[in-house]
Amino acid sequence: MTAPPVVPAAHRSPAEAEQLHAGRTGRAVGAGAFRPRQLLESLPTALRKLDPRRQARNPVMFVVWVGSVVVTVAAILDPTVFAWSIAVWLWLTVVFANLAEAVAEGRGRAQADALRATRTDTVAHLVDGRAVPATELRVDDRVVVEAGQTIPGDGEIVEGIATVDESAITGESAPVVRESGGDLSSVTGGTTVLSDRIVIRITAKPGESFVDRMIALVEGAQRQKTPNEIALTILLSALTIVFLVAVVTLQPMAAYSGGEQSLVVLVALLVCLIPTTIGALLSAIGIAGMDRLVQRNVLATSGRAVEAAGDVSTLLLDKTGTITYGNRRATALHPLPGVDVAELAEIARLASLADTTPEGRSIVELCAREYGLPVEASATEAAAEFVPFSATTRMSGVDMDDGDGRELRKGATSAVLAWLDDDTDRARLEAIATAIAERGGTPLVVAYVRDLLGYSTKDRSRGGALGVVELSDVVKPGIAERFGELRAMGIKTVMITGDNPVTARAIAAESGVDDVLAEATPEDKLALIRSEQAGGRMVAMTGDGTNDAPALAQADVGVAMNSGTAAAKEAGNMVDLDSDPTKLIGVVEVGKQMLVTRGALTTFSLANDLAKYFAILPAMFLALYPQLGALNIMGLATPESAILSAVVFNALIIVALIPLALRGVRFRPSSADRLLRRNMLVYGLGGVIVPFVGIVGIDLVVRLVPGIG
Amino acid sequence: MAGVLQVLVLLVLLAAVWRPLGDWMARVHTDERDWRLELGIYRLVGVDPRSEQRASTYAVAILAFSFAGIVLLYLLQRLQTLLPWSFDRGTVEPGIAFNTAISFVTNTNWQSYVPETTLGHAVQMAGLTVQNFVSAAVGMAVAVALVRGFVRSRTDRLGNAWVDIVRGCTRVLLPIAGVAAVALVATGVVMSLRAGVDVVGPDGRPSTIALAPTASQESIKELGTNGGGIFNANSAHPFENPNPVSNLLETFLLLVIPVSLTRTFGRMVGSMRQGVSLLAVMAGLWGAMLAVIWTAEARTASFAGANLEGKETRFGIPASALWANATTGTSTGAVNSMHDSFSAFGGGGALVNMLFSEMTPGGVGTGLYSILVVAIVAVFLAGLMVGRTPEYLGKRLGRREVTCAVVVVLTMPALVLGGTGLAIALPSTRDAMTNSGPHGLSEVLYAYASAANNNGSAFAGLTVTSGFFQTTLGIAMLLGRFLPIVAVLALAGLLARRPRVEPRPGTLSTGTPLFSVLVAGTVVLVATITFLPALALSPLAEGLT
């Protein structure tokens, strides 16, 4: 009936964990402050990016680049203040776009440097005694690392147990335990062994370790465009082509009408019309999205994964650590009829003394608090042989060495009864267990026998089941509201738990989760993910064990805990360095924010065109058709000042929006319709109005320039 | 007042027919059984009506069928002398035959010839009327294939192009056109195989008034949003459109299928809200443009010395404005008054209707698929703003879907602007223009807008018989028709392969008023940002005096 903790207990105290939740997964999605000085610092990089080969990767900005060259040539051939002003501001438009990308990359680089600091000139000591530089290690090399040494590369422990300081990567100062076998065997290069000695099998080639890949990604060197980004680029390129056609064909129409336009004016019109704002900021938005995850100590192996996070419609959340505090605590003892509660307390305490899991500790603490039993083990008690929990026995306990040969066990009802081979108390035990489970608790049957071989159901003095310890889950405060918000965003939450269905449903009801997968096996998880995906829904999950690997790989967003196995980390497409499953919700928000930012700035960029038309069209054709002056609703001074103002606005708006692109637009969890209405209002309507104001303002300055005004 | 009444009657008629006709067309294209007549046709051409086609096969069938139609129509015109009822009108010259063949197969029905003196009744009936039916059926088939793309999932089959074309004719176009033809005869539309009647004019001189089998062609001309008149004066001719009743009936016919297809769409995708929201976009833009044209015409006419040029005096300004708006809002192009003679903004309104890319409500089938494609673009932009990969009708829109949509949306502006720019750059064009200045530019712009949108209405005033115009307008018609069709079918194929995702609160809800506003906004935005410079030099410069 009872189940073991599904997730290995986190290697930090609940208080520490709580602090992390509060600190790193704050409500509003945001990022570090943007410092204007970053613009200056990135200027050299921005200028280097003027190389046409780099510009060609961004079709919209490439058109601006070509336009700048054309206008510069025109200005050289026929130098006027107007032509040179336009030329300068077109170049500035390209530089500002580069700047946006450079600033985003610069912020990523700061993260990369921090990661790179972990890759020192470590010397690796192979098992055969040779010492080689860490950079020459090969996969499957076995290296020995002793206390005080730095682990030379990603790998898994094949021998030994050690405490490891992973603060270099996670920023978490509390050391963690790593041991061979099981789910805690993976170690990351650059972390330091604090105690003991371990033998590690290297699993990553030098330069291809997890951290290396991360460095490349956050620096933007290996950044590949994400699917939505590609689709958007296609749309933007197509718009650029149409504007190109519109401007090129305007010339013969203008010539026919008797108002042939200069090349400078036509290029200015083209640059103002094509979606330069979003074109300039598109890659910065993508890089910044990755960056925001890194700031939350989540490393994504690809931008695609970040984007997929925004699309997730089903979240698989482990109950333990995400919905409830990591550990269940003993809250009550329920003796069987005829058993003294003191006896139950005594046996329960004895059976738990050597059990260092939080559950075990909480039983000892309960017995101390309620029944005055000592917390510390006596010498005899300490000499007892600990029988650890195993998946096959589903029990733990001790074998006493006190001459009695007493064996004490606590565990699932069915497991304990099977061990006793005694069904006498089944009905009563199950009644108690069911009552506990209905409250959302976990029942743990306590039993002992004296000399198991001689045990008989008839003789109570030789032992038997005594009663039940009630372990309760404590649901984290605020989690129900969180799920409510997710529901509004159209995301279904599924609680994954090893608990039985009754217990699971009680916790589900308390926490407000949408669905529950009880008594979940790795196969169940995989099957659930597949069925969700078959319905076209994208699934995100967290996991840490090797047996989670297939599900992590199958999920669209698989966040592996850094404390997990190498297999899990390899299978997922993100790693949470803090090993905090709650963060999955934040990851989804970062993904959504990235998409919203792109859409909002695209809309803003297109809406801007209206004002630019009102500035440039009358300026172009006023001499020809004075009646088109009716379109000059902004009252711009001269045709030259009107066109220049539009070009200057077009360039400056890029700089003005860099902080927004890096930070991402404000994202509050709410329904799609509400989000759309709000963003249409802010970025659609705002995009229509802002340039009118901006161009008028710039015109007031520009008209003072001799030769323009 | 009578004008408002006309509009109301028209709207009531359309509203009454919307449900039964829309549902009927949905049944036609989902029915498992074939009519005996249809089975006969399938046997004759060797088609298995139960076999379904991939997007590529479907497209090849459509293209092959249309290409064969062009060749056949070209040959009919060139060999006219061998046909009965040709009345010594002779062989049609190659340039005109080429342009006319393309024009009628692409559902444009642009006419660079004078029908009464160029074509005999055999070519009119066996050539043009047949194409009036099948070109409309082709448009409907492509629209239905796209809707199937939304409805189906995880399949690469879109239905059978031959079945869709045949059924469109046998079950929708032929029955309605047949009834309408009889009704038109009842209103006084001519139906005759004679070449004409000899009369003595009031001045005592003898002349011949041409006759033709008009009613049978007139009904499908409007119903199939074709628009090619059997007389040069088109529906301004009293034999094609004798009185206000016939005028209203013809206006109704040219709107009825495009409007009802929104119901067909809603029915097929299983959500009537989706169909209604698109209908709202069509109706909203159509109503707005009607107001523009009507106001522009009414105001110009009220000036002293009234600009009566271009006003259909038999029907009055409202009927002219209503017809102009309906014929350019659908891709019909039949006229009951000459748009060239409209006021700057009135003619400009008709031009803008076409520059909306013919989806208010658009041609038979073409209107539906065009607006669906714009909806996809709108959903893509807006969908990003809700923080999800955009979905429309349960289909995720990725790179390839957007590429197809963009090809459809951009083909027309590229053809119109490219054609106009090229034509206006040639000195010879000046000679072909009746007017100079902004109005002259409007004439050229209108011609290419009409061709690329497969509308076929002419601003008149532009002589398009030169080799340059025949060729470039012909190319504009061909590309304007078939590039989007190929892209739409490719899109349908992509969509059909995608799994259908059930809508959730987190996805942008379509089929809502907000969605209608978004789609209408996208239609207007795309037209504005691409055509505003050109329009500034033509109707705007002309009208803002």
TrEMBL record, chain A:
<dbReference type="Pfam" id="PF00702">
    <property type="entry name" value="Hydrolase"/>
</dbReference>
<dbReference type="Pfam" id="PF00122">
    <property type="entry name" value="E1-E2_ATPase"/>
</dbReference>
<comment type="similarity">
    <text>Belongs to the cation transport ATPase (P-type) (TC 3.A.3) family. Type IA subfamily.</text>
</comment>
<keyword id="KW-0597">Phosphoprotein</keyword>
<comment type="function">
    <text>Part of the high-affinity ATP-driven potassium transport (or Kdp) system, which catalyzes the hydrolysis of ATP coupled with the electrogenic transport of potassium into the cytoplasm. This subunit is responsible for energy coupling to the transport system and for the release of the potassium ions to the cytoplasm.</text>
</comment>
<keyword id="KW-0472">Membrane</keyword>
<dbReference type="GO" id="GO:0008556">
    <property type="term" value="F:P-type potassium transmembrane transporter activity"/>
</dbReference>
<keyword id="KW-1133">Transmembrane helix</keyword>
<feature type="binding site">
    <location>
        <position position="410"/>
    </location>
    <ligand>
        <name>ATP</name>
    </ligand>
</feature>
<dbReference type="GO" id="GO:0000287">
    <property type="term" value="F:magnesium ion binding"/>
</dbReference>
<dbReference type="InterPro" id="IPR006391">
    <property type="entry name" value="P-type_ATPase_bsu_IA"/>
</dbReference>
<feature type="transmembrane region" description="Helical">
    <location>
        <begin position="82"/>
        <end position="100"/>
    </location>
</feature>
<dbReference type="InterPro" id="IPR008250">
    <property type="entry name" value="ATPase_P-typ_transduc_dom_A_sf"/>
</dbReference>
<dbReference type="InterPro" id="IPR044492">
    <property type="entry name" value="P_typ_ATPase_HD_dom"/>
</dbReference>
<keyword id="KW-0813">Transport</keyword>
<feature type="active site" description="4-aspartylphosphate intermediate">
    <location>
        <position position="318"/>
    </location>
</feature>
<feature type="domain" description="P-type ATPase A">
    <location>
        <begin position="130"/>
        <end position="219"/>
    </location>
</feature>
<protein>
    <recommendedName>
        <fullName>Potassium-transporting ATPase ATP-binding subunit</fullName>
        <ecNumber>7.2.2.6</ecNumber>
    </recommendedName>
</protein>
<feature type="transmembrane region" description="Helical">
    <location>
        <begin position="613"/>
        <end position="636"/>
    </location>
</feature>
<dbReference type="InterPro" id="IPR036412">
    <property type="entry name" value="HAD-like_sf"/>
</dbReference>
<dbReference type="GO" id="GO:0005886">
    <property type="term" value="C:plasma membrane"/>
</dbReference>
<feature type="binding site">
    <location>
        <position position="548"/>
    </location>
    <ligand>
        <name>Mg(2+)</name>
    </ligand>
</feature>
From TrEMBL, chain B:
<feature type="transmembrane region" description="Helical">
    <location>
        <begin position="406"/>
        <end position="426"/>
    </location>
</feature>
<feature type="transmembrane region" description="Helical">
    <location>
        <begin position="367"/>
        <end position="386"/>
    </location>
</feature>
<keyword id="KW-0406">Ion transport</keyword>
<keyword id="KW-1003">Cell membrane</keyword>
<keyword id="KW-0472">Membrane</keyword>
<protein>
    <recommendedName>
        <fullName>Potassium-transporting ATPase potassium-binding subunit</fullName>
    </recommendedName>
</protein>
<keyword id="KW-1133">Transmembrane helix</keyword>
<feature type="transmembrane region" description="Helical">
    <location>
        <begin position="55"/>
        <end position="76"/>
    </location>
</feature>
<keyword id="KW-0813">Transport</keyword>
<keyword id="KW-0812">Transmembrane</keyword>
<keyword id="KW-0630">Potassium</keyword>
<feature type="transmembrane region" description="Helical">
    <location>
        <begin position="133"/>
        <end position="151"/>
    </location>
</feature>
<feature type="transmembrane region" description="Helical">
    <location>
        <begin position="248"/>
        <end position="266"/>
    </location>
</feature>
<comment type="subunit">
    <text>The system is composed of three essential subunits: KdpA, KdpB and KdpC.</text>
</comment>
<feature type="transmembrane region" description="Helical">
    <location>
        <begin position="172"/>
        <end position="193"/>
    </location>
</feature>
<dbReference type="GO" id="GO:0030955">
    <property type="term" value="F:potassium ion binding"/>
</dbReference>
<feature type="transmembrane region" description="Helical">
    <location>
        <begin position="473"/>
        <end position="496"/>
    </location>
</feature>
<dbReference type="GO" id="GO:0008556">
    <property type="term" value="F:P-type potassium transmembrane transporter activity"/>
</dbReference>
<dbReference type="InterPro" id="IPR004623">
    <property type="entry name" value="KdpA"/>
</dbReference>
<comment type="similarity">
    <text>Belongs to the KdpA family.</text>
</comment>
<keyword id="KW-0633">Potassium transport</keyword>
<feature type="transmembrane region" description="Helical">
    <location>
        <begin position="517"/>
        <end position="537"/>
    </location>
</feature>
